[in-house]
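Researcher: Sequence recovery benchmark, item below. Answer with residues only.
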């Protein structure tokens, strides 16, 4: 199988979720199947497993490369979870990786990367209408500043400055144009491109990423069998805070708790992985077990 995307924290996922032959598996963000292929190599239970993704390119790949017995859903993970709960489905292993896949970043036409020039798109599901172009060119200066502060965690002064610059230079239709507009406002040396958090903020809003996570997390215990394991990989503090708070609340009721936290502190990538996959540097894995 051609590897289009290097899955982050793969050895840690396998070690903590402990797949066994015959177990059922739900991957809420299957992408190009990096985690799924290794877990299914162990479980070999295709008919009781479900792979979910809202990106049509990922879905086409999964349908082409994975056994036909697997239920592959072209949905956002909240919609998929609602359907599965309604159907009474349960699983031994559930995994959600909230990161953007390498193909999404590397395909210029998707508009996710500030390194590759492309249209301001950033839609994970291209069936939806809202794009990054809409936000950059139609939102007010105040709305943009609020987005940069809330979802990019920019300081108020910087957020307002970037919003003002964007509004004054409209129309802006390419990722390179936006990234360069932000970059020239920052003087001196910087390790991370100064537009990184702006791009993150816009992408989060385009795809309603945090809202989807908030709506989905409380439903996940309903999908876990007794002693079932839940693994969640987050990539920035906003996501990780939601996951951390959810797991704490779900495990804080003594014997009546739905979940038991497996790792008190999030698991991060080892230096060996970072050499071959620098995109794993911000990944954090949290794992819980159904009581």
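Model:
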């Amino acid at each position: 199988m051609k590897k289009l995307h290097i899955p982050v924290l793969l050895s840690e996922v396998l070690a903590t979720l402990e797949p066994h032959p015959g177990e059922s598996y739900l991957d809420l963000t299957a992408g190009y199947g990096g985690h799924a292929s290794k877990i299914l190599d162990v479980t070999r239970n295709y008919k009781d497993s479900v792979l979910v993704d809202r990106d049509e390119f990922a879905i086409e790949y999964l349908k082409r490369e994975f056994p036909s017995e697997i239920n592959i859903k072209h949905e956002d993970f909240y919609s998929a979870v609602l359907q599965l709960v309604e159907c009474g489905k349960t699983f031994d292993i559930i995994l959600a990786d909230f990161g953007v896949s390498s193909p999404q970043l590397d395909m210029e036409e998707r508009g996710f990367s500030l390194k590759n020039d492309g249209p301001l798109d950033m839609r994970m599901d291209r069936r939806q209408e809202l794009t990054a172009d809409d936000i950059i060119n139609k939102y007010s200066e105040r709305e943009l500043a609020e987005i940069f502060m809330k979802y990019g965690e920019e300081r108020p002064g910087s957020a307002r400055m970037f919003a003002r610059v964007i509004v004054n230079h409209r129309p802006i239709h390419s990722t390179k144009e936006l990234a360069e507009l932000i970059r020239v406002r920052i003087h001196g040396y910087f390790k991370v491109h100064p537009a990184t958090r702006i791009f993150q903020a816009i992408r989060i809003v385009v795809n309603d990423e945090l809202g989807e996570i908030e709506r989905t997390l409380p439903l996940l215990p309903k999908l876990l069998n007794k002693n079932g394991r839940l693994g969640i990989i987050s990539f920035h503090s906003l996501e990780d805070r939601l996951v951390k708070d959810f797991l704490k609340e779900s495990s804080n009721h003594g014997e009546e708790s739905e979940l038991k936290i497996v790792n008190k502190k999030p698991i991060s990538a080892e230096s060996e992985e970072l050499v071959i996959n620098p995109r794993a540097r911000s990944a954090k894995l949290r794992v819980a077990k159904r009581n």
